[in-house]
Structures are given as C-alpha cells and as structure tokens.
Amino acid sequence: MSPTFDSTADPGPDALLQIVGPDGTRHLCPELDPWVTDIDADALENLYIDMVSIRRLDAEGTALQRQGELGLWAPLLGQEAAQIGSGRALENDDFIFPSYREHGVAYCRGVAPSDLLRMWRGAAPSGWNPYEVNMANQQIVIGAQTLHAAGYAMGLRFDGSSAAAITYFGDGATSQGDVSEAMVFAASYQSPLVFFCQNNQWAISEPVARQTTGHIADRAAGFGLATWRVDGNDVIAVMAATRAALAHVRTGSGPAFIEALTYRMGAHTTADDPTRYRDALELEEWAAKDPLDRVAAHLDGLGSDMNALKVRADDAAEKLAAGLREAITSMPDPEVSDLFAHVYSHDHAGLDEQRDFHQRYLRSFESTAEATA
Amino acid sequence: MSPTFDSTADPGPDALLQIVGPDGTRHLCPELDPWVTDIDADALENLYIDMVSIRRLDAEGTALQRQGELGLWAPLLGQEAAQIGSGRALENDDFIFPSYREHGVAYCRGVAPSDLLRMWRGAAPSGWNPYEVNMANQQIVIGAQTLHAAGYAMGLRFDGSSAAAITYFGDGATSQGDVSEAMVFAASYQSPLVFFCQNNQWAISEPVARQTTGHIADRAAGFGLATWRVDGNDVIAVMAATRAALAHVRTGSGPAFIEALTYRMGAHTTADDPTRYRDALELEEWAAKDPLDRVAAHLDGLGSDMNALKVRADDAAEKLAAGLREAITSMPDPEVSDLFAHVYSHDHAGLDEQRDFHQRYLRSFESTAEATA
Amino acid sequence: MKSLTFSQALNTGLRASMERDSKVVLMGEDIGKLGGVFRITDGLQKDFGQHRVIDTPLAESGIVGTAIGLAFRGYRPVVEIQFDGFVYPAFDQIVSQLAKMHFRSRGNVKLPVTIRIPFGGGIGSPEHHSESPEAYFAHTAGLRVVAPANPQDAYTMLQQAIADDDPVIFLEPKRRYHTRGEVDTELIPEPGSLYRAKVARSGKDLTLVAYGPLVKTALDAATAAEDEGIDIEVIDLRSLSPVDFATLNASVRKTGRLVITHEASRFGGLGAELAASITESCFDYLDHAPVRVTGFDIPYPPAKLESHHLPDLDRILDGVDRAMRRGGTSRGEEG
Amino acid sequence: MKSLTFSQALNTGLRASMERDSKVVLMGEDIGKLGGVFRITDGLQKDFGQHRVIDTPLAESGIVGTAIGLAFRGYRPVVEIQFDGFVYPAFDQIVSQLAKMHFRSRGNVKLPVTIRIPFGGGIGSPEHHSESPEAYFAHTAGLRVVAPANPQDAYTMLQQAIADDDPVIFLEPKRRYHTRGEVDTELIPEPGSLYRAKVARSGKDLTLVAYGPLVKTALDAATAAEDEGIDIEVIDLRSLSPVDFATLNASVRKTGRLVITHEASRFGGLGAELAASITESCFDYLDHAPVRVTGFDIPYPPAKLESHHLPDLDRILDGVDRAMRRGGTSRGEEG
Ligand SMILES: Cc1ncc(C[n+]2csc(CCOP(=O)(O)OP(=O)(O)O)c2C)c(N)n1
Ligand SMILES: Cc1ncc(C[n+]2csc(CCOP(=O)(O)OP(=O)(O)O)c2C)c(N)n1
Ligand SMILES: [Mg+2]
Ligand SMILES: [Mg+2]
C-alpha cells in the first residue's frame, strides 16, 4: 500500500493572462492591455528581433560549450518572451537580481559578451560590474538573490528613490526558505520589489508539482503581494504585467509577484540529459506555444514584411553571435594572482602571507627551470 | 522624508471562527459546531478545570523562577484555551512537535512535572522521553520543529498509519524559512500534519504586523493548506477547529493550518519586560477576552454549580502546583558525567578521551584534598 | 575617559558610528523599542528613527540577506543576531553570499556588513544561547572575525568594524556585558589596529592566548600563577581572522611555551589553528607542545553543568602546569 | 570481487542497505528518475519505489529537517545534497538539530541520518560546486564525519554509515567518482572499522596524511619521493570525526615527520586539528613541525585557476621537502 506521488503538471492556465495566443491571435485582456498601448507593430518587431537574438545567443552558448570553449551553459531556449518582455519593461535605474539563466535579461542591459561568458568559461567567478549595468552578478545558490533584492528595495525606499528592484528565479526556487523570507521582508517594509518567477515547469528533473500543489502566484498572494499570473511565452503580456507590477511597487503599495508560465525547451544545463526524466510529448505541446512563432504569426497578420524582418533579426542575431565568439577567442586566461585578488578589499595578514608564499613557490620552478636550462 | 513602519495590529477578527464569545454567549458556528456536539456542560467543566490547572502551573513556573529554582520560564498566561482546546482534541498516538511555550499541551500529555521543569531549571537540555508521551522535546530554535513534524508526518503516511502529527509555533515563527519549507514539504507529500499557530500578537517585542501584512492563515492557504482561523481564546472553538483539521489530514487530503488568535498576557519570558514595548491598553482589551472567564460565564448560564466547580478546579490546580514544587525540591543536580553522556549513542574515540582526561583532572583535586586533609 | 560597562561602550560606539555616517543602519530582532534583549541598542531607535534602527521579521537568513542587499545599495548595515545559536539559519547567506560577493564581483561590490553576535556561555541559559561559533566563521575566506574583551575595545573595535569595507563578524562576550571599564571616547585608533593582538600582561615563562570572555580568566590565571613563580604573558587575540601571528610568534619565541584557551569545542576550534601555525613558525623555540584548554567536544551543556565545560582558572593552570612540564593532568596515552 | 567505479560502488552499497533494512529511505533533489546529477542513485527509484527513493522539493533545510522527522518516526534516511556548496541552507538543521537531538533528548531519540555530500574540486565547475566543508562538520559535536577514498571503502563505509545510529556526514570525493577499483561485495567489515584510519602505504621517513580526493595524489607523491630516496608512509584518514589518532600517532612516532594535505582552506581546516593534536601527543618524537599543504584561504576559484588552488604532487613534495628540512618553499618570516 505504498503511496504514490503524482507529478501531474501545473493545474493549467486558468486565470492566465494572455494577449497574443500561440497561433498569433491577439486577445482582449482588459487587465493588461492598458499597459502596452504603445506596443505597435514597430515596437513588436523590435521585441521579435530581441527574441531571435537571444535565441541565437543561447544557441551560441551551447555550441561554445560543445566546442570546449565554455565549461557549462544553462540554455534559455523557450524562455525568450519571459526574459525580453520583462527585461524591456525595466527602466535603466531599476536594479536586477538574477539567477543564472537570465542571459536574455543581461542582453537587455547591454552586458558585454565577454562579461556574460566569463563565468561559464570558468575564467572568473562571475562577469560584469553590477553598478555599470544595474544588474547583480549571476547567482547560483537557488533563491539567495531574492533576499538581496529585498534589501536593495528597502534601500530604495529609504532613499525615496523612484527606481524599483526586480529579482528573477525559477519554479523550483519557490520552495527555498529564502524566497519565502524575501516575500516576508518585502511585504513587511512595503518595498518596491518585483518578484519575477519564470515557471518553466521543471527544476532540473523535478516537475513543478513537486514544489507546489497550487499556483505559485497564489502562494505570493498569501504573503500579501500583488500578483500577476501571465502566459510567459507571450512577450506582450509579460511586458504588460511587468510594467503593471513595476508601477504598483513604485507607488509604495508594496511588492509584487509575477508568475510567468513558460517552458524550458532545452536541457537544464549542457551537463543535463532531460530525456531521462521527461516526455517528448510534453516538449511537443510546448513547442506549439513557441514565443517567437506567435509573434511572427501576429506580425504577419498585422501586415509586417516578414522576410525583411527575418533578415534584420538574423543579422542582429548573427552579429551578436559573432561578438560572443570573438569575446571567447580574445579572452585572456586569468592570472594566478587573481586567486588572491578581491578576497578582501584590503590587506589581510593571513592571506597576504599565503599569496607571498605561493609566489615564492612558483618562482622556485622558474629557478629550477633556469638551473636546468 | 523618512518612511515609517506602522505596527498596526493584526487586521482584526474578520472571518474569525468563534463558538463562545468573551461574555460567555454561545454563538452558532455552522463550520465548527458539528465537531463539538459531545461537549456538554460536564465536558466543558473538565476543560475549565484543565485551563485553571495550567494557569496555575504557569504561575508556579513564574514563582519558581523568581525564587531562583528555575533559570527561566516562558509564561503561557492568556493562551490556555489555545493549548487545552487543541491538546484535548488529539488522540494518544498523534505526535506533537512543540516550541517552548506549550506547557499546557505537555500537561495534556501527562508529562511529569520534573520532566517539564528539567530544562527550565537548567538541569538538562530537555525533559521527557518523547516516545513515552508522543511529544518531542521543547524546541528553542524558532520554527525548526515544523520540519521535523513534516518528516514525521511523511513517515505516518508511508506507514499507512491513521495517526497525525501536529506542530505548535508562534506568529513570529511564520517568518522563518523553515516554517514555509515545512508547508511546502507537507503539501508536496500530502502528509497528515496540522500546523497550529498560536498568534499571540507578539514575538518578544515585535508585533505580528512586522511579520505579515495579512492574515497568517491566508499565507498557509497560499501553500495549498486547508486553513482555520479561530478565536484562540475560545476553548470550544479551538477544540472544534483542531478536530476538524485532524479529520481533514487523516483522510489523506493534505496538511491543515490553524491560526488561533490569542494573546500573550505575560512577559515573553521571565527575562523580558513587556512594559518597554507594549501598551497597557492593549493588555486591558485582551483581558476582557479572557479564555477562562468566558467559559465560567457560559457554564454559569448553563446552570453549573460554579462554586463547586471552582473548588474542584482549584484543588486540581493546587495539586498540580504542589507536584511541581515537590519535583523541584527532589530533583537531583546533574552529574559531571552527564556532560559526556548521549553526545553519541556509542563510542567516539575523541570524546571518550576527553571524558577520561576530565575524570583524571577531577580526581587530581580529590588527591590534593586528601593530601591537604 | 568615561567609566562604561561593556554594553554601554557598544551602545556608545554604535551611536558614534551612526552619527558619523548616515549610511550606517542597524537591523535585528527586537532592537528597536526594546533595545535588544541585551539592551545594546537602547535608545537608538528613538534618536535615529525606524529606518536607521530597523526591527526585522523573525528570520535570520532574511536579516543577513537583506543586509547584503542594503549594502549593495550603499548602506553600511550592522546586524544584531539575538544569540549565537541563532546565527545558523543565516549561515548560507553569510558563507556563500556575504563572504564571497567581493570575490565574485571581482572587487566591484563591497559589502561593509557587520554582524554582531553575543557569544559564549556562563550566563546560565538554556540550549542555543551560549555557543561559540567562531571557528566556522574564521575558517570562511572572505570574512573578518574579531572579538573585543574589554569596554575600551568594545567601543573602538565596533566602530572600526563598521568602518571596514569588508564583512566583519563581531563577537561580543555576553557574560562580560556588565563589566565596567575606563573608555576613552576620544581615542583615535591607529589604522589597521583592529587586526592586531595585544599583550595584555607581559611575562617571560609562558604565553597564554585568550580572546573575548576568557581574557579576564586568563589574566586571573596569570596572577594566580605568579604565586607559584610562573611569569605568564597573556595575549588578548582581539582579531580571529586575520590572526596577528607576528605578535604571537614574538611572544612564543621569548617564552618557549604556549597555552591557548577558548570556550568553543576543542576539535577543530581556533586553538588548533593557533597551535598548528605557531608550531610551524616557532618549532625550534618551543620547549613543549602547545596546550589547549577549551570547552569539550559536546553540545553546550545545561546551565547546571556549564561551569565544568567552561575553562576556568583551575583548568587553565592545569594546562599551564602541563606546558611547564610541572605536572598537570596527564594525557591518556602517556598516563 | 567486482570491478566497480567509485559511483557504482556507492550505488551498490545503497542498494544493499535498502535491501537489508526496509526503513532505509533515500531523499534528495533529482535522485529519482534522473538518478541524481552524478547518477549515484541510478535505478533505485525504479526498483524500490517513490516512497523509498524520494524526490524532494528544492530546499535543503527542508530535506534535512524532514529527514530528522522521518528518523524520529523510525526511518533511516540517507540524504543526498546535490553539491557541497548547497549544504549551507541546511546548516541550522544539521548543527542545531541533527547533531544535538540525541543529547537534547538524553539518549531517547536516535537520529540515524546519513548525509551524503559530493565534495571537493577538480571538476571544472562554477562557484559552489567544489567546496570542502568538512571542517564545519568535524567541529560540530554530535556529528560523525567520514570520507572514503576508493571504491571498496565507498561501498563498505556507506553501508556502515547508514547502519550507524548516529548522524553521519558522508563526504564523497566527486572527482574520484569515475575511478575504478576492485570491490569485495561480500566483505564483512569489522565493527568499529568505519572510524579507523588506514595505512595506505607504509614508509619510515615521513607520515603523509590525506583523505578523500587527495589520497590518490598523496600516494603518487610518495611514489615520486621514492626516487629521491624518501620513504613516505601514506595514511588514508577515512574518518574525520572521530579521528583515529592511535594510528596517526604510531606512524608519526616512527617517522618523526608529518605532512597533512587537504583541499579545504588552511586556516581552521582539519589539518590544523591534526597538526595540533599530533604535536601534543608526539612532540618529543617530532624532528620538524607538522607541515600543511592545503587549499588557500580563498573562496573556491574559477575552473581555470583551480589547479593552482588544489594541492598537487608538486606542492605536496614541496611540503615534504620542508618537513625533511631539505628545502622547499621558505616560510615568509624566515625567508
Ligand atoms: C541551494 C541550491 N540547491 C541546489 C542547487 C542545484 N540546482 C541548480 S539549478 C536547480 C534547479 C532550479 O530550478 P528552478 O528554480 O525551477 O530554475 P530553472 O533551472 O528551471 O531556471 C538545482 C536544484 C543550487 N544551485 N542551489
Ligand atoms: C532562530 C531563532 N531566532 C531567534 C530566537 C530568539 N527568540 C526566542 S522566542 C522569539 C520570539 C518568538 O515569537 P513567536 O514565534 O511569536 O512565539 P511566542 O514567543 O510569541 O510564543 C525569539 C525571537 C530563537 N529562539 N530562534
Ligand atoms: Mg524551473
Ligand atoms: Mg508570538
């Protein structure tokens, strides 16, 4: 009489906010439409180009990993609308606390290719200067960044700033105590913070049903957050929800939560083999909801010149990919001295002694080499 | 322009389940009434005696601390209905994971006075044998026990047992990541676990509004738990809600959550001075909602012989208090060897050596004493 | 010079830091109206407001994690952990985030967060209220760890810790909170002095190293040993990471004998590092192996047994006797 | 005898434990269908069902906390932490609950929980995937800590750890998962042998202590040293708490010289305890201070730098030279 645990999928898209359906049809969405009145065909074409670009960026990441240029890569394939829709909704001074999969958001922030790849190449613990792009470095410990975002948002409030903070995390992350605590703190101080959950249905091999029996967005509501549950493969809907949530938090009405339903079309990382745990059928189902195809279909319906658009998009994507390859070939390996740099911001007697010791150790090889030369 | 954080009290008793009001009037409560059809005047008298007894127990704890017999005491004053109502709703084989304030629940379990006081006296890290009373030892780390309860309840489910687990914690505890994770795990495995939150309005000096902007029970609902929000000073309502929740979890319908609204009438512990942070008015307000007075008023209305009842209650209480005093005076101090006992369940070379070393060290004083004698 | 208790010195130091730098904010459970369970922040919320002295929800990971976020935003948070045993829920945020962010961001993000922890035993408390977790933090690269032992250092070192751009774990010997001492509130400490040990009493026969709560005990032991003709040099370590080995080595090269004492468990405690490092640097000067007098490798015991667990004058003198080869309790194997 | 990789040996050991005792349940992230990210639990959910091999929500404190609850109920949970760096969210449950429950309950509650942690570096991973957290656990009273170094020990020690009534932190050297070796699956280990060190190679000039991933490196170093006429005794520590000092002391009394190596940071690492304890027991036998060859006191570095951080053959031999007073890199103060 052993109990079984059904890993039935997320209860489904009830109350799911959507503007453009999988087939490209535009729906009325009274809750979201007011937030995207400016998204005309031109604007949508740009979002399309963005999505094509980051899909290409992602493919290049996977390719570079296969070629041995990167140690690892976490594909975003399938999550383009979630990342571009939200990334493009942010103001420049909004501060982002991402996980490890938000290459698309980093792209929106103009993170340099070399800085984006540095960590994945194993050349540095992380890449960019957060203050140059208003985006924290990649976070690997699941959920940890949500608390940093909550603290940063407290600071924004203390400063009387009109900026907001946003933090990205996955469906799996919602189980971590830190994420719940981040909601507690953000609500307690009514801080200007948007929680952006990319519910891509899987946490490595665990379906979202292992993490929750209900909707993730409902959990956030229980913490007193304003919530939006949105079709994460619908770039306009995601943008609208993010703008709505940002507007909400900027007024001092407390934090907000967006659950964007999407799907991780690829492997968890290049080290993962999803065929071991998930059904090809599920993949097919979600392929039919592709975030790029629906925008193309919609633009086509609007009368956009799709051939011209695809050329423009491919050009942009190819340029981006070339930049990534160039960044890799020109990236110098780190120096041994980097081991000891930045552990502390100033002198630390113990570490300084180790650094000096190691320098003497390395020099002993030089002298041996000289001696035998 | 510095923001202020209002510590407005809990939003109030909307949707609060109640059976007997502060003035002793019995209300209809369709949701709870079916669960307490057996609670006639006799049964209620017994609950009253229980409440008087643990109020006395609590007073004795405080007195013993003042007399230097205990190192510390955490008063339950004001929370008698929450503890007796729930404690008396449990079956013997239901397993309890308490915090540090559930002396009333321990009393229901028949924990021996000496075992109850052992920890507060500083004579042992904790008291009783959990397996003898189906109640884990006191837990001091806020929220930690809720996860143990979640695991125990998983085990109950694996075993096909009809027993349930119940865990007690406070309003402050709801902020701890562990408590959220316990809800995640209990919901994920649909385990027979009742979360019993005594929302006594304060976590030491922090009002519940610091922990949450909404109702605590709503948070639990967001995790997919069946919830009851009950007047925690109404012993019949608490008993009814606990029985309902237990019945719910026993059917395999997943975990349940009870928020019992009550008030910590005393100090957080004997080391605390609540006048530093809370208003005498608030105390008065809650004194008017006393859990014992309303049962007395109700029984009086039912025609119970109140003088006789009070004598019976005082007798029982006095006997209990005498038992506590007797337990203290007869409690032997721990032995030095207790330092090393039970760190491990069997030999550990490192610790065993330290134990032997310390024995030799202590013996050196004996020989010195002998030598100088 | 003012006569202040250890806790008053901390309170005064906090106030000075807050007055000097408007980015200094205090965070913790019950630190506002209550002034903290030890009253270290007494009166500060009243004077600086609720956004400078921030009562937090009851969640230590949340406190440290949001302090990191505030530091990201340019604040200089000073976190109070209510008791030593309640720092562990924040361990991940401390070890994987606070300690590593500067390295991770290649020096771009500084996290000047000070975590104040009332630590150690001797106050008759129940479980989790008397822990000495310093070894966990000292072993963690990226953190600095200090422990004052007297009111003057409490006052000065706390301000130095807050002013430091790196995260600092600031360990307060809670059983010394009521100790009174002279405090020069005008003192301008030398730069870098936060990380230097102090010779608290000079002597020539043996070096006795202590920190936090046991410095007083060590000084008492030295006085007692004087009667037996042993001249002990007592070193107040002050900084646990980095350790000021220059001062320690100089002392041991002079005395040839070393006793280390701390309340924390012996196995893998800081004493092991001190003994191992000093042995490596001073082997040829040592007349006897370094001796450790520490808490046992047990969970902190109940109040009625803590006096047996905590190193006291007698146990330190027993260690001194061993180091002097004048007896003391024999080690098992030999004895 | 079977030829098995380290990971196959673990898998086989788990299977044997599960067959022997129906109360043994496995818990962790992705351990079911996926078989864990390292495939250590491959096939076990299929064979034993979802209530014996339990995929958990993504929350380490939750995993350890519920494992404690299951143990309370009579189960014998074996927890997999996906990578070393992800054990810290569970630190409070491990240190304040798992380690202390037996003591707290005065022996009434036993928590036979095994926590498997793939640990250490050398696999080119990003941050948090290469940590060596053993010092934190070894310093924690109430825990036992072991680390196998070869497939036979992986197989045997894992079953012994699971059978132990105390909580055991079981550290698996992940970069050795693919190492192949002969495993006697019929072997019935001596009682108590889980906590004994092994002389992996005997020698007379110097004692070299290693555990987990570095045992192989240490043996290679010993082979290399042979060419230079140094006869090294290599000890595979196996148990980190308790440490088998009897075996270590006997070796050092014979050789008079000690080198200890581990990947973890040096400051406050296990090497400090070994050096300090052995010095205390063997001072008069030592010809030189114990030498430690360890990772630096830095956050684990990025993949392209890890070879500099990890002790390798050359760095161990440099330490050997120092211990033999035959050169090696000079220590700063002297040099
Ligand atoms: C604290 C912690 N535990 C475990 C891991 C290992 N891990 C990396 S990603 C991942 C799954 C994350 O799932 P989700 O939050 O849904 O994000 P996604 O990868 O789907 O974007 C796990 C378990 C980790 N990085 N951190
Ligand atoms: C992890 C942890 N942090 C802090 C404390 C100190 N502390 C003890 S009780 C308490 C307040 C608890 O409030 P609540 O959960 O509402 O329970 P109550 O005391 O009101 O019954 C605090 C902060 C603790 N015991 N554990
Ligand atoms: Mg996911
Ligand atoms: Mg409370």
From TrEMBL, chains C, D:
UniProtKB keywords: Oxidoreductase, Thiamine pyrophosphate
Protein's UniProt name: Alpha-ketoacid dehydrogenase subunit beta
UniProt keyword annotation of Oxidoreductase present: yes
Domain Transketolase-like pyrimidine-binding: 4-179
InterPro entries associated with the record: THDP-binding (IPR029061), Transketo_C/PFOR_II (IPR009014), Transketolase-like_Pyr-bd (IPR005475), Transketolase_C (IPR033248)
UniProt-listed SUPFAM superfamilies: Thiamin diphosphate-binding fold (THDP-binding), TK C-terminal domain-like
Names of required cofactors: thiamine diphosphate
SMART domains named among the record's database cross-references: Transket_pyr (SM00861)
